[in-house]
Every structure is written in C-alpha cells, then in structure tokens.
Design a protein that fits this description.
Blueprint lengths: L25 H16 L4 E3 L9 E4 L12 E11 L3 E8 L2 E11 L1 E7 L5 E7 H14 L10 H20 L1
Antiparallel strand pairs: 1-2, 2-3, 3-6, 4-5, 6-7
C-alpha cells in the first residue's frame, strides 16, 4: 500500500518550482523513504516530492528493471544537472501524476548530476539510458515542468482532459 497519495495533473502544485533543501532533517529522510515505498508500490521508477504535495527539491528513483537484479534506490536532495551530452535519446515517457498516458520525449542521452544523499554527502554521477531520462524527468518536476509540456499542444490538451475526467471519477468513487 502506498504511503503517500500521488497528486494527479492538473494540479497547481505540479507547476510550481520546488524550494532547495537547506537541512536534511529526519522528517525529510522519512519523506524520502515514504516516497521510495510509494514509487515501488505504484509501480514507477521515479518520484519527485512535488508529486506527493511537498514543494522541496527531493527526488527518488530506481531504474533497475531486470528480473532478479538487486534494486538500486537513489535519494537525491537538490539535484542539479552539471553536464549534458550532445547526443539525444527519445523515450516513451509516462508519469505517476499522469496515469496511463505516454508520449515520446527527446532528451540528452547522458547527463551528469550532482546532489546530496540522505546523509548530507555530496555525490555526482553520470547517468545514461533510462537512468538519464528518469533523472531529467524528475528534475523537471522540481522545476514545475511535466513530460506533456514537451508534447504538441493538441496532444497535451487531450491528455489533460483525460486527467480531469479521471479525477472526477475518482472523486465520485
């Protein structure tokens, strides 16, 4: 069972820029653990704090999908893209805040990201493949941007209408 409710688009909180984390408190570590559990339960590969209604620069991700492979949960406070490759990749992206809707998004194939982990240690790693796409998608959430913002206006409006209908149906249930 998910620990946190995931906000469904459209919601003004998903369009706001999240605030930097100045102190990694025990409350924020609990939030990060809750977010990982919520993400795994969804199931998803990434989740940003604004998606659970917390406007802080925090995201979690785990893109290990191979059967039997050990999970690799990452907790990123104040993630910042330091470098992007010239080579681009297109992935069909989805989002836990926009359930069952997908669209092709082109992003840099590799990115180097710096962040603080849950112990306050500065980390930096270069991601590629699905990891690169995921971390960029989640950092977009921290900047008030959704994957549908990359799509053509008509497609974006169609998805938004479907989400409004979904929210109405859930409210009645």
């Amino acid at each position: 069972m998910a620990l946190r409710d995931i906000i469904i688009h459209p919601d003004p909180r998903l369009k706001k820029v999240a605030e930097p984390v100045t102190d990694i408190s025990s409350d924020l570590r609990v939030l990060a653990d809750d977010m990982l559990q919520t993400m795994y339960d969804a199931p998803g590969i990434g989740l940003a704090a604004p998606q659970v209604g917390v406007l802080k620069r925090l995201l979690v991700m785990d893109c290990v999908k191979e059967e039997g492979a050990a999970p690799r949960p990452l907790i990123l406070f104040n993630p910042e893209i330091r470098w992007v490759s010239e080579e681009m990749n297109t992935y069909e992206e989805g989002c836990l805040s926009i359930p069952e809707q997908y669209g092709d998004v082109e992003r840099p194939a590799e990115v180097t990201v710096a962040w603080m982990d849950e112990t306050g240690t500065s980390r930096e790693e270069t991601f590629d493949g699905l990891w690169a796409t995921c971390v960029q998608h989640e950092i977009d959430h921290l900047n008030g941007k959704l994957f549908i913002d990359y799509l053509k206006p008509l497609r974006r409006q169609m998805i938004t209408r479907k989400m409004v209908k979904l929210k109405r149906e859930r409210a009645r249930a």
